[in-house]
Amino acid sequence: MSPTVSLIFAAVVDKCCFWCYSVNL
């Protein structure tokens, strides 16, 4: 993957994980 795609993917995963973590609390 290109660096840009990796950064976008990491940002999306980070937002999803943060959202799931917040809901689980």
Listing every helix as H and every strand as E from the N terminus to the C terminus, the arrangement reads H
Number of strands: 0
- Multimeric state: single chain
Q: Could you tell me the mean pLDDT? A: 82
Distance between the termini: 34 Å
**Shape from CA axes?**
rod-shaped
Radius of gyration over C-alpha positions, nearest whole angstrom: 11 Å
Helix content: over 70%
Poorly predicted parts: none
Instruction: Output the number of helix runs.
Output: 1
Instruction: Provide the structure class.
Output: mainly alpha
Describe the structure.
The structure is a single chain. This protein is an all-alpha fold and 25 residues long. The protein has one helix at residues 3-24. The chain is rod-shaped, with a radius of gyration of 11 Å. The model has no long low-confidence stretch (mean pLDDT 82).
